[in-house]
Design goal:
The strands form 4 sheets. This protein has a 5-stranded parallel sheet, sandwiched between helices. It is of the alpha/beta class. It has helices at 55-62, 99-109, 134-141, 158-164, 180-191, 239-257, 259-268; strands at residues 13-17, 29-32, 36-42, 66-72, 85-86, 96-97, 122-131, 145-150, 167-170, 224-225, 228-229. It is built from 7 helices and 11 strands. The radius of gyration is 23 Å and the shape is elongated. The protein folds into 2 domains: 13-201, Alpha/beta knot; 209-268, Trp Operon Repressor, Chain A (Orthogonal Bundle), CATH 1.10.1270.
Length: 287
């Protein structure tokens, strides 16, 4: 696909084939034209698809609505033991993934992918990266695909990040043994926003973070359980009042539990985040 060709979101069936690429674990699945693709550079390709192979993401994967291509970093290593790392320059504990080894894997992963990072991002899962959020998941879902680099040990050589213009993304303020779990979380959050994956696209519009707010409380039958009742408004059949109640509750929960999100929400609407509002009323001023 040429760099000037706009992303295609059509889903015309092309073919079914088994890939001979290293550690491509997803085989005998239909390839659909324009299907979003995740290429994951990892020392542990056997971890994929992992949780991505279950539920709706797994169903969509096997229907060809998206593709998963794990790339085994070890096959690009050197020597008898396929070494991929070395000691940190300047000393210190641990090991660092070598730039020459990782560059080979990245170039392999980028074959056939657009050079335009707006169409095909290259991401390193790193605790020092920009925090991943719903807006980023939606942005990634509108690309043609993504290349994810799963770090191990003490991380990767900084020169690789600089040379390839790699974006660093963090799942949160904590450290894990590697980037594979973070990669699966990022892929899951992205894939579910691809048309036809969930089946009911409206369900993604009322979720937490879709409008910068946490989601309102949810209830279902029975109407009374363990002395607790479903709020009367939800059983009233008055959809306007129900929508209002859900918005009020979403605002209240966000203000209480995520002051950072609440401040951003208020700033975008010219509201004062410190205003005290009655628990019986809305948290925002209505027109």
């Amino acid at each position: 696909m040429g760099e000037d060709t706009p992303p295609s979101r059509s889903h015309g069936r092309l073919t079914i084939e088994v890939s001979a690429r290293p550690r491509d674990l997803i085989t005998d699945t239909p390839q659909l034209k324009g299907a979003w693709c995740a290429r994951v550079i990892t020392l542990f390709p056997e971890m994929f698809p992992g949780v991505l192979g279950g539920s709706l993401t797994g169903k969509a994967l096997h229907e060809g609505l998206w593709r998963l291509e794990p790339i085994d970093l070890r096959v690009f290593g050197e020597g008898k033991h396929r070494n991929v790392d070395d000691t940190p320059a300047g000393g210190g504990a641990g090991m660092v993934l070598r730039p020459d080894i990782l560059a080979r894997a990245i170039r392999q992963a980028q074959r056939g992918a657009p050079a335009d990072r707006a169409r095909w991002p290259v991401v390193y899962l790193s605790p020092r990266g920009r925090p991943f959020d719903q807006a980023m998941a939606r942005q990634f879902s509108q690309t043609e695909g993504i290349t994810l680099i799963c770090g191990r040990f003490e991380g990767i050589d900084e020169r690789v990040i600089e040379h390839f213009g790699i974006e660093e993304i963090s799942l949160g303020d904590f450290v894990m043994t590697g980037g594979e779990i973070a990669a699966q979380a990022l892929i899951d959050a992205t894939v579910r926003l691809i048309p036809r994956v969930l089946g009911n696209q409206a369900s993604t519009e009322d979720e937490s973070f879709s409008e910068g707010l946490l989601e309102h409380p949810q209830y279902t039958k029975p109407s009374h359980w363990e002395g607790r009742a479903i709020p009367d408004i939800l059983l009233s059949g008055h959809h306007g009042k129900i929508d209002q109640w859900r918005r009020d509750m979403a605002e209240r929960l966000t203000k209480q539990r995520r002051p950072d999100l609440w401040r951003a929400y208020c700033a975008a609407r010219g509201m004062d985040p410190e205003d005290d509002q009655s628990s019986e009323g809305a948290l925002t001023k209505r027109e």
